[in-house]
Structures are given as structure tokens and as C-alpha cells.
Write a structure and sequence with these properties.
Layout (H helix, E strand, L loop, with lengths): L13 E5 L3 H12 L27 E5 L2 H9 L6 E5 L8 H11 L5 E5 L6 H9 L2 E5 L4 H13 L1
Parallel strand pairs: 1-2, 1-3, 3-4, 4-5
Helix pairs in contact: 2-3
Length: 156
């Protein structure tokens, strides 16, 4: 049964971000943990008369792991996450695909989005996405795109 969330207030989700770049974490935290009028990437969102997501106040909890290994540790420490956003390229160590493979050994149902700047994806990526039921999310992205992704993932 899908539970409808009231996205106008309250904590929306507990999100695990696995990305080696601290600036990405700071942006995601800014977008999801509180409503802000400052969006340095607003130009990435489509301009329309409907400002839907801009009016939503999100108070999600964002946890950050700067590597796939650390993200897996957080999951194994019994943190309960509603979803995970995993960067594709995280040198050194596991890349996003390897991280997904390891996470699925611990949690087979966690909603995951693989975040990548690459527009085209190879067959290996498509196979992992399909096998592990992972969404593909392209960066750079703005607040609206991220909010829409979180809404969709939490509603599933």
C-alpha cells in the first residue's frame, strides 16, 4: 500500500547520500533539510507557471558517506534509510556500481538512485540498474528535480 505523504511540512525521509564530493552533500542538505530561497542551481530547473515544488517545505534528514565503504558501514550500523543517492564515480575505492552491489547484499529493498554526469550509459550500468531496481539520475540537477526524485522514490 502506498502511503501519501504531506509534503508541505514534517520530515519527509531519511536519505543516505554516498558521494566523494562534500560540496554535493552541502547542496543536497541545503535542498532537502530546510526550505531556502537561495538556490545556486535554480537555472537547472525548468521554468514554468507552476511553482509546485518551490512551495514545498522539506525537512528531510540527510546522512553523508564520502565513499561506498562508509555508506555500507552506515547501513550495517542499523541506520534506517528511506532511500540512497549514490554517485557513480568516487575515486579511490568502489564506484557507484560496486557500492550498489555491496549494499544489495545487506538491504535488498532500499530504493536507490545512481547519480551520474554521464548522459550515455554502457551495458554494465543498465544491467546493474535493472538487476537491482535502481533509478538513474543525471547531474547537474536543481532543487525541483531532486525534490521530484525524492517524492517518487519515497512513494514507491
Amino acid at each position: 500500500e502506498i502511503v501519501s505523504r504531506d509534503w508541505s511540512s514534517d520530515v519527509c525521509s531519511s536519505d543516505l547520500l554516498i558521494d566523494d564530493e562534500e560540496n554535493i552533500y552541502k547542496s543536497v542538505k541545503l535542498y532537502l533539510e530546510k526550505k531556502t530561497d537561495v538556490d545556486p542551481f535554480a537555472f537547472l530547473d525548468e521554468v514554468s507557471e507552476d511553482t509546485g515544488n518551490q512551495e514545498k517545505i522539506l525537512e528531510c534528514e540527510v546522512y553523508w558517506a564520502n565513499s561506498g565503504h562508509r555508506g555500507l558501514e552506515l547501513l550495517q550500523e542499523n541506520h534506517s534509510f528511506d532511500l540512497a543517492l549514490i554517485d557513480m564515480n568516487m575515486p579511490p575505492g568502489w564506484n557507484g556500481l560496486q557500492t550498489i552491489e555491496e549494499i544489495r547484499k545487506t538491504d535488498s529493498s532500499l530504493p536507490i538512485a545512481l547519480v551520474t554526469a554521464n548522459i550515455s550509459t554502457n551495458e554494465d550500468i543498465h544491467n546493474v540498474l535493472k538487476q537491482h531496481q535502481v533509478r538513474l539520475f543525471h547531474k547537474p540537477y536543481g532543487r525541483d528535480a531532486l525534490v521530484n526524485l525524492i517524492e517518487e522514490m519515497v512513494a514507491e
